[in-house]
Amino acid sequence: MSSIEVNGKSYETDEEGYLVNLSDWNKEIADYIAKTENVNMTEQHWEVINFLREYFEEYQIAPAVRVLTKAIGKKLGAEKGNSEYLYGLFPYGPGKQACKIAGLPKPTGCV
Amino acid sequence: MSDIKKFMFVNRKAPHGTIYALESLEVVLITAAFDQDVSLVFLDDGVYQLKKGQQTKGIATKNFSPAYRALEGYDIEKLYVEKESLEARGLSAADLLVDVTVLERAEMGELMDQQDVVLSF
Amino acid sequence: MLHIINKSPLTNSALDSCLRVAQAGDILLIEDAVYAATTGNLFEGKIREAMGRFKVYVLQPDLEARGLADRLIAGVTPVDYGGFVELTTTNKNCQSWL
After folding, report:
1. Is the pLDDT of residue A110 over 60?
2. Interface pTM (ipTM) of the complex?
3. Which tens digits make up the pLDDT trace of C14-23?
4. Is A110 tagged catalytic?
5. What's the rounded Cα separation, in Å, for the pair A93 and A68?
6. Which of these is catalytic: A37, A89, A110, A111?
7. What's the CA gap between A60 and B90, in Å, rounded?
8. Do chains B and C touch (3 or more CB pairs under 8 A)?
9. Can you give the CATH number for the domain in which B70 is found?
10. How far away is chain C from the Cα of B43, in angstroms, using its nearest Cα?
C-alpha cells in the first residue's frame, strides 16, 4: 500500500495514487494530488471536482467520461459540457485525473 | 448504425450474498460505452437488487444500489422486472428504487427471444 | 432460442425459471442439469410436460459420467460435443442460465 503525506498527516492510496478511504478527502489533499498531477487548480477545476463529489455522493459510482460530460453540460452549460473543455482542465482525462483529485475511485471501465 | 446489437442482461441473484449482482452492474456500465441496445432483466431473487432502502453499513460492504439510478444517465433505460418474481417476494414496483416495466412471464420470454446476446448473472 | 442449463433442478432454480419464462425453443441440459432428464428424478414430470413446448437435449458425456446413461427419459435427445456446437449455431441466440 502506498501513501501520501499532507500537512504532516499520512493518507493511504492505491498504487496509482487514488485515495483508499474516500472519507479522508479534503481540499488540501485535493490540492496536493493536483500538484503531483501538474494541474493548477482554478475555480473551473473546482467546479468539476465538486460536481464529481456530488455525483458520487448520489450514485456511489464515478461517472464514465461520456456521462460526466453530458451531466456537466446539463448543470453548468453546454460550453463546459464538452470534452475539449474538460480535457483542457484535466489533460489526463476528466475521468481518471479529476476523480483522483476528487478522492474518488477510478471510474468503472476506465483503464 | 446497422451493427447495433440487442444485449440483454438477466439478473437472477440477490444483491449482497454473492458478487453476481455487482459484477453484472459493472459489465452493464462498461457496455453502455459501446452504444448498443441494452436491456436489463430482473428475475427471481434478482428483483431484490432493486429494493429501495438498502443499507450496507452494518455488513461493511459497498452499497451499489444507488448506481441503478445512474443508469438513466448512461442511456440505459430498458429495465424489465417479471411480475411473478415480484409477487412471489411480496414486492411491487413501488418498492423498487428505479422505474421499471413489469412484464408477464410470457412477455419476458418473448423479449428474450428477440435478443442477439443474452448474458446471465 | 437455445437455453443451456448446467445445475441440478433440485438444488437450483435455473431450470424452473427457464421453463416458467421461456415459451418454446431448445433446451440443452449439461453438467449437473442432466439429472433433470433421468427417470425417477423428482423433476421428471416437469421435463415431460416441457417436452410439449420445447425440444429437450442432454449432453451424453455428462450423463455417462454420472452413471445415468441408461436412465434417460424417452424423448430427450442425447447429443455429443459436436451436437452441442451445432445447437448453438442452428439457434439464432442462446442463453446460459446461471
Report:
1. no
2. 0.89
3. 999 999 999 9
4. yes
5. 11
6. A110
7. 27
8. yes
9. 3.40.1260.10
10. 8
**Whole-Å CA distances, A28 to A32, A74, A103:** 6, 28, 11
Residue B1 lies in a domain: no
Please give the average pLDDT of every successive group of 10 residues along chain B, which has 121 residues. 88 96 95 94 97 94 95 97 97 97 98 97 97
Topology at the third CATH level for domain C2-96: Hypothetical Protein Ychn; Chain: A, (3.40.1260)
pTM of the model: 0.89
Is B61 part of a structural domain of the chain?
yes
Chain A contact partners (≥3 CB pairs within 8 A): B
Q: A36-87: per-residue pLDDT in tens?
A: 999 999 999 999 999 999 999 999 999 999 999 999 999 999 999 999 999 9
Instruction: Count up the domains in chain B and report the number.
Output: 1
Give residue B66's domain range.
6-120
* Neighboring chain B residues of C23 at a CB cutoff of 8 Å: 106, 109-110, 113
In this complex, do B112 and C22 lie within 8 Å of one another by their Cβ atoms? yes
Neighbours of C84 (CB within 10 A): 17
Q: Is A38 left (phi over 0), alpha (psi -120 to 50) or beta?
A: left
Cβ–Cβ pairs < 8 A, chains B and C: 43
From the list C13, C25, C97, the residue facing B120 with the nearest CB is C97
For residue B71, tell me if it sits in a domain: yes
